[in-house]
Amino acid sequence: MPEDKLCVATLLTCTAPVNIAVIKYWGKRNEDLILPINSSLSVTLHQNQLKTTTTVASCKHFKEDRIWLNGKEVDINHPRLQSCLREIRRLARKRHSDEENKSEKLNLSQKVHICSVNNFPTAAGLASSAAGYACLVYALAKLYGVQGELSKVARQGSGSACRSMYGGFVQWIMGNRSDGKDSIAEEIHPETHWPQLRILILVVSSERKPVGSTTGMQTSVKTSPLLKYRAESVVPQRMKEMVDAIGKRNFEKFAELTMKDSNQFHATCGDTYPPIFYLNDVSKRIMNMVHRYNSHYGHIKAAYTFDAGPNAVIFTLDEDVGEFVELVKEYFPPETNGELFLKGLTVSKVTLSEELKSAIGMEPCSNGIDYIISTKVGPGPQMVEDTSCHLLGLDGLPKQNI
Ligand code: DP6
Q1: Residue 261, CA distances (Å) to 59, 168, 228, 275, 360 in order
Q2: Residues paired with residue 382 on neighbouring β-strands, in sequence order
Q3: The Diphosphomevalonate decarboxylase-like N-terminal domain covers which part of the protein (predicted)?
Q4: Which of 83, 166, 365, 401 could form a disulfide with 380 if both were Cys (CB 3.0 to 4.6 A apart)?
Q5: Arithmetic mean of pLDDT, 324-353
Q6: Is ligand 1 within 6 A of the CB of residue 127?
Q7: CB 34 less than 6 A from any atom of ligand 1
Q8: Is the CB of 24 under 6 A from ligand 1?
């Protein structure tokens, strides 16, 4: 039968979220299993603004496993993709052999087709591998009827992906077993825990493609004494304090720990040899603006955090988010896309006071920020019921419009 006429037996679609770490993961103790040198903690971002959608299909006529990412077919033999596929199939086989009833609807020897897209531009430099691997693992697990703890499978695609397997506030416990079975993510509070918390992603213009996190952290582990100190002597205590601050919805404590942890992560990058620089001048101006804003009010109303790139992620409470957006517009005036500058959740209009402006006292820097994505805490991966959302057609190939 020609491939384009195939009639796919099983087709399903899932979505998964992006997460932003407030206690950073940086450094592995095992490269193959992706085991970290410290625990980390993240906030899951809402999928209405940022998500990956993945369709998986299985059919007895498929000749090989295939995958399309954002409209282009990519090599399925990538070792991390293979780890996830192998692990899910192993769990499916185990379940199959454990079960009395072997009337499994899916034949495990059948090949799969996978198609995945992001609802945000990859060019924006927002980490997409976490949402991507979480979505892949979640969808494959549904396809093969695998249940139970899946974060340790997603972890083998990309470390931070294990945290995208849950919504709300999530910790990745580093574990200490050499087989990685205890290195798992868990939700510490659901998305509804802190409804006042708001998140702004400031997409910073940049021409350079930064050093990828996998390579970056390898060099840091080899060369940075600060990273070793951080993992052993700073993060364990900081994790406890962060869990406590989130539990009590203590914004000031949460914000302070978030900024300090981002700063220490970037300090370890500077301590890496040769050094790695992820922050650019605009990132540093944003940090400066946040500190001046907080000191004007005499308490912490906004916090920044930066991953392996120049984009800033800002946390505020809903009563302050409108003012912070105005501040960004004032000091990073958008020239061309005024209307499209703020995407996502709406914020209330606020007029900046003259006192605040003189306290900030910075020169405006045009075009430093391309746009802002306004979002909040969101849920974990989900199954999409609407079959018109499938990214693959009944022939098992990507639909034309993706
Ligand atoms: C700075 O999860 O992308 O975003 O495990 O090699 O795929 P690999 O790395 P990745 O690293 C993320 C690093 C970070 C911090 C974090 O998300 O905790």
Answers
A1: 47, 19, 14, 18, 24
A2: 15
A3: 16-185
A4: 166
A5: 90
A6: yes
A7: yes
A8: yes
Q: Is 396 left (phi over 0), alpha (psi -120 to 50) or beta?
A: left
How many angstroms is it from 212 CA to the middle of ligand 1?
9
Kindly give the number of the ligand 1 atom that is closest to the alpha carbon of 25.
18
CA gap 98, 82 in Å, rounded:
24
Q: Report pLDDT digits (tens) over 303-325.
A: 999 999 999 999 999 999 999 99
Name the closest-CA residue to atom 3, ligand 1: 213
Q: Which residue has the tokens 């992820």?
A: 278
DSSP H helical ranges for 175-317? 213-223, 225-229, 235-247, 251-271, 281-297
Instruction: Give, to the nearest 10 degrees, the angle between helix 251-271 and helix 213-223.
Output: 70
CA of 43 to the centre of ligand 1 (A): 14
Question: Is 210 close to ligand 1, i.e. is its CB under 6 Å away?
Answer: no
Instruction: Give the model's pLDDT for residue 1.
Output: 46
The answer, yes or no, to whether residue 105 has pLDDT greater than 60, is no
Residues 77, 351: Cα–Cα separation, whole Å: 54
Residue whose Cα lies nearest atom 14 of ligand 1: it is 307
Per residue in 116-150, pLDDT (tens digit) is 999 987 766 676 799 999 999 999 999 999 999 99
